[in-house]
Amino acid sequence: MERQYLNLIGGKWGPAAGGATSPDRNPARRDEVVAVFPSAGKEDAIRAAEAAAEAFPGWARTPMPKRGEILLKAAALLEQRLDAVAEALTCEEGKTLAESKGEVARGVSLLRYYAGEALQPTGEVYGSASPSTFLFAERVPLRPVALITPWNFPVAIPTWKVAPALAFGNTVVLKPAELTPLTAWHLADVLDKAGLPPGVLNLVVGRGSQVGPALVESSHIKAVSFTGSNTVGSKLAAQCAERGIKFQLEMGGKNPVVVLGDADLDKAVEVTIAGAMLSTGQKCTATSRVIVQRDVLDGFRQRLAAKASSLKVGDGLKADTYMGPLVSADAEKTVLDYIEVGKHEGARLLTGGSKLQGSEYDQGYFVAPTVFDGVRPDMRIAQEEIFGPVVAVMEARDFDQAVALANDTRFGLSASVVTRDLGLALRFIREIDAGIVHVNSQTAGAEPQVPFGGFKGSSSGTREQGKAAREFFTQIKTVYLDPP
Ligand code: NAD
């Protein structure tokens, strides 16, 4: 029998108010139930927001170094169970075990990084125009915050929101994606065991359409940090604006690799394949367009198609798997529908383009690594986020046209250029509309100590991670202190 897990509200682990549950399934073997989780609704969300409000004064008074110590302890606990959490991640999300281990290790680093941030200065002292005034600006918490996260990085994203929120003295309601609750449960469990007081972190696993709006509407919630789709993000933004509360949105991408005429083509293929196919293309920073200068297009597309068709697709738990399944039946349908759209729009399929069939493939959501060639900028597959192992090859006359094509989408999360020419690399860095730029490396990847986020429709609000997280999770109180 699979284990039944519980939500954490006000320091107590418990079921959803109505007792509803939902199975957490393995996308590589859809009949396998990994765990059973509560399917919380509005009532649970309201209780969690109340618990966070009740816990706030005590947590805000807790000295920052003490908050940091709890994060450090949680990092150690998460590191001790790294293998178990990585396996849970592969079983509920599908990515390979190597990628899962990397993600859990990143969660550990994030907890450590924000434990360190808890020892950093919390404000600035200014010279006042008045000789008797002590003038300073102090960063203070926002109070209870709601953190709403997607399924594709179910350890890293909750951690990079929860850790700074807690370090800076906020209390939290975490609403993870319904598809991947087990990893978020581990995060809540290690923080609970590390000694967080009751109500400081509340975990509500449940339906997004119920729990999300109830949290955003709760008068206790003073800010929302969201990562997910543009459709949900833009609705949330309107709700937050209506209430006049702070929000931060990290959303979709349509990230390009630009391969210039002087590029090392093996390097260009390596960068494109890793960016497009790892995590089955389900990263907000995944490569979904590759814009190639005409002179090297023939050589590049042959090598890319050969490499893509040679990738080992299978259960992420197997050591030789390069690419696992898509996360769900819905995700598989969306990707297969986009492949049909691409064919109808007149793009040429170089490899892949279908569901994989036979033996283990029939059990899960496996789609072949897919490469389209001859893609024009007006095609939907060049503009819309597919979120699967599908990459569109586009031709560019020269550097200027390549950058113009790369910038020609509503998104601006990450971008990469492959070149040996330092001058062109620098021009690319200046001219590309993206929040994250790579030179000779894949579009995906994020280190915890630097800001993360995009331009245009990819993000809204201040950046996540690194010191940038402080901008979102604190507000500034300016104090004029005069002697009595
Ligand atoms: P999603 O928008 O469907 O869901 C995200 C979260 O929002 C989930 O927890 C979901 O339950 C919740 N939700 C659903 N309806 C809601 C509502 N009405 N109100 C409030 N919350 C609601 O996204 P997803 O399918 O989980 O994730 C994939 C998307 O996330 C992709 O578009 C991807 O690009 C994006 N993403 C962005 C980043 C980034 O940092 N920019 C990182 C990872 C994923």
Task: Give a structural overview.
The protein has 484 residues and is of the alpha/beta class. It folds into two domains: 7-251 and 459-481, Aldehyde Dehydrogenase, Chain A, domain 1, CATH 3.40.605.10; 255-439, Aldehyde Dehydrogenase, Chain A, domain 2 (3-Layer(aba) Sandwich), CATH 3.40.309. It has helices spanning 42-61, 64-80, 82-93, 97-117, 156-167, 181-193, 208-217, 230-243, 265-277, 294-310, 329-344, 380-383, 399-407, 422-431, 469-473; strands spanning 7-9, 12-14, 21-26, 29-38, 123-126, 134-141, 144-148, 171-175, 201-203, 223-227, 246-250, 255-259, 287-293, 348-351, 370-373, 390-396, 411-412, 414-418, 436-439, 455-456, 459-460, 474-481. α4 (97-117) packs parallel to α5 (156-167). The longest helix is centred in the first third of the chain and has 21 residues, at 97-117. It starts with 6 loop residues before the first strand and ends with a strand. The structure holds nicotinamide-adenine-dinucleotide (NAD).
Biggest sheet descriptor? 7 strands, mixed
CATH homologous superfamily title of the largest domain: Aldehyde Dehydrogenase, Chain A, domain 1
The total tally of domains equals 2
Bound molecules: nicotinamide-adenine-dinucleotide
The structural class is alpha/beta
Beta-strand residue percentage: 15-25%
Mean pLDDT comes to 97
> Which value, in Å, is the CA radius of gyration?
23 Å
